[in-house]
Amino acid sequence: MGTISEGSGGGKPQRRTCSCTKQDFLPEESFQSWANYGKALKETGMRLKDRVMSRSLDKSELTEIRARSGHEMKKNLTWWDLIWFGIGAVIGAGIFVLTGQEARDDAGPAVILSYVVSGVSAMLSVFCYTEFAVEIPVAGGSFAYLRVELGDFMAFIAAGNILLEYVIGGAAVSRSWTSYFATLLNHHPNDFRIHATSLDPDYSHLDPIAVVVITLVCVAAVLSTKATSRFNYVASIIHLAIIIFIIIAGLTHANTKNLSEFAPFGVRGLFSASAVLFFAYVGFDAVSTMAEETRNPAKDIPLGLVGAMTVTTVCYCLLALTLCLMQPYAQIDPDAPFSVAFEAIGMDWAKYIVAFGALKGMTTVLLVSAVGQARYLTHIARTHMVPPWFAEVHPTTGTPINATVVMLVATAIIAFFTNLNILSNLLSISTLFIFMLVAVALLVRRYYVSGETTDTNRNKLLGAIVLILASSIATAAYWAAGGEGWVGYVVTVVVWFGATGFLWWAVPQARAPQTWGVPLVPWLPSASIAINIFLLGSIDGPSFVRFGVWTVLLLIYYFFFGLHASYDTAKASAADGAGV
User: What is the pTM of this model?
Assistant: First the structure.
């Protein structure tokens, strides 16, 4: 049986009112009877092969897939909105909480360089996301990009990790919100949490305030994207003003002796901190999901994404420098570092401004995250990899209410139980993994077009990508194993450089971006792959175990439900397009 491609169908979208019937969740042929389901399970191998080999089309994502939501999202965002969404999405719990934790325990004052490393990695990913968002401006973000270039199966694995990223990120930020709220009221964070002694210590401090905050954010997110945008950029302007205050006030009490022991934990500590601090840059991908609601994607998305990331990276490095100049790294508080630092230098009143600024920042992060994660889930549901009930867009608000509510309920449950250190490491794994896949997808997009690229050039591209991935994984594995000698790194870096150079020299690009493209291809996407994989090698083992468990759960769901639902949907689309 040939591979079924979505993109030929011209089926009319079903327009339904919101309901919760079986047809809303499992409308596909495979789930209409137990006999059908049994037959589908017997065809799992054939169907999996079809989904692994299938590719969506740009046109399909922009028209047919998007139409399955029944109603259009409102196009009312500009580059100005996107810049402030980007700043609001990123500057939050990472800088105000993790900076202290990583400076004290992993990097010392070299945490400043850790932010630079993470920022470079994030900016390379921003370039890749921007090209895709301009070319395929849909709500699905990286999920849609991977469906087009790497196929349904890889897109589903990424989709599961995208959703995990948002749920964990929201949970982490909401728990941090409680910490700074407690500081504002002169209390310890655990004073506002319920200690359940019968639970594991990492899950025993129950956080009802985090749940309340998420609930309020959910209400705001479902009402209006444009109103959310207006609130976000007003709040973000106030937030930036407070950041400027922190930097100026902190530097007036700077002590350069605090930088004398700049990297007490060595280079390994610096990169270990970079992997965790990547959490602080998570959020910009949410802006790419708003491309469907952007008036002029070709102009607005590059300005919005690159502009927001530039402002964010500069702010992070200056804030980290200020904190390390205010206090010796060993005395930095891991929970509320800036507030405690101002208290230590005798500016008790300033800690209230810091706490207020942190709360402002974390509120906008939660708000933008709520908007972004709902749009990811909406587009995933449009493909029927998850029930299409989640894809419905409300005709009045123009927002995906079902997806928003379900994602935030999941976030609230995780936030209620789980400590920040567990959340931040697991979040970084999912995020780095997705960003690496998007960079691979960009190389495929530039160098391979089905029906045009010759078999020889396709094989050259495949070989180059395999070597880029293998050399990057080898470098990360050698680092994670504690390799101290330089010979191993020289070998892996030379292989990476050779593979990237071969791709640049020996394989002609099959497609050029129409409006905006990543510069220096293949070097920048290849560097993004290498840096993301290297940072993965700096994350602790238990986090990888949790990541593995999540991936197994994803595969179980896919083989029993998602695979058959998406296969039936693609089959119906192809039959509709053929006039069957």
Answer: 0.81
